[in-house]
Amino acid sequence: MKQFDLEVFEQIPVIGILRHSHSQQIKEAARAFHAVGFRTLEVTMNSADAAENISYLSKLYPDMNIGAGTVCTTEDLSSAREAGASFIVSPVTDITLIGAAREAGLAVFPGAFTPTEIYCGWQAGATAIKVFPMSALGPAYLKEIHAPLPEIKLVAVGGVTIENIDDYFAAGAYGVALGSGLFRKDLMEGDYETLKQYQEKMYERVMGLL
C-alpha cells in the first residue's frame, strides 16, 4: 500500500472528488486531473465500482495520492485500504474510524462542522479536518474557526469554486476539496481536452495563491 504523501499535498493542497461517476468517466477525469498537475484524488465509496476504480488509479498513477471518500464505517475503510487507497475522507467525525484509519496507516480527513466536532476530530489524530458543508456559511465561518484554533489544519469542502477559492485560503484553509468545481457535470460527458482546459484554469488559480 502506498503511503499518503503529505509533502505532495501541501505543495498542491487540493483534493479532487469524483462522485457517482462511471468507470470510463473516472478514467478520463483522472487523466485530465493528473496531466494538469493536481496530485490528490478521491473516489467516493458510494460510487459504482469504487474499490475497483481506486485500485486502478492507484496502480496507474503512483505519483498521486489516491483515496476513498464518503467512508462512514470500518467496512468501508477495509475495502478502501485493500483497494490501495492512501487516505480516506468521511462526512462525519467518528473517533473509532479515525483510530482505525491511523492504525491501518492511512491519512484521514473526517468531516466536521462545529468547533467541538473539529477539535475532537483533531485530538483523535486526524491528518486534517474536512469542514463541511462550507456552502452553508462560507469563508467567514472558516475564518472564525481558524482564529481560536490556528493549529488545526482545516480543509474547506462544499461550495468551493474558482470564484471563491481565494477567499478560503485567505480565511486560513490548509487545503480545499472540490467535486463539481473540478469535474463539471456537463464536461464529464464531453471530450478529454475540454475537461483538461477547464481544470487548467483552476490549477493556475491555485498555484497563483501559493
CATH architecture: Alpha-Beta Barrel
* Structure classification: alpha/beta
| H/E element sequence | HEHEHEHEHEEHEHEHEHH
Mean pLDDT: 95
CATH superfamily: Aldolase class I
Number of domains: 1
Q: Strand fraction band?
A: 15-25%
> Which CATH top level class fits?
Alpha Beta
Strand neighbour order, sheet with most strands: 5-4-3-2-1-9-8-7-6
Q: Summarize the amount of helix as a percent range.
A: 40-55%
Largest sheet features: 9 strands, parallel
Shape: globular
Distance N to C terminus: 30 Å
Structure description:
- With 210 residues, this protein is α/β, with parallel strands linked by helices.
- It has a single domain, classed as TIM Barrel.
- It is built from ten helices and nine strands.
- Strands 5-4-3-2-1-9-8-7-6 form a nine-stranded parallel sheet.
- The chain is globular and about 45 Å long.
- The protein starts with 5 loop residues before the first helix and ends with a helix.
Identify the notable features of this structure and list them briefly:
210 residues, alpha/beta, TIM Barrel, nine-stranded parallel sheet, 9 strands
Compile the SSE list and pairings:
Elements: H1 6-11, E1 14-18, H2 23-36, E2 40-44, H3 50-60, E3 65-69, H4 74-83, E4 87-89, H5 95-103, E5 107-109, E6 111-112, H6 115-123, E7 129-131, H7 139-146, E8 154-157, H8 165-170, E9 175-178, H9 185-188, H10 192-209
Parallel strand pairs: 1-2, 1-9, 2-3, 3-4, 4-5, 6-7, 7-8, 8-9
Helix pairs in contact: 2-10, 3-4
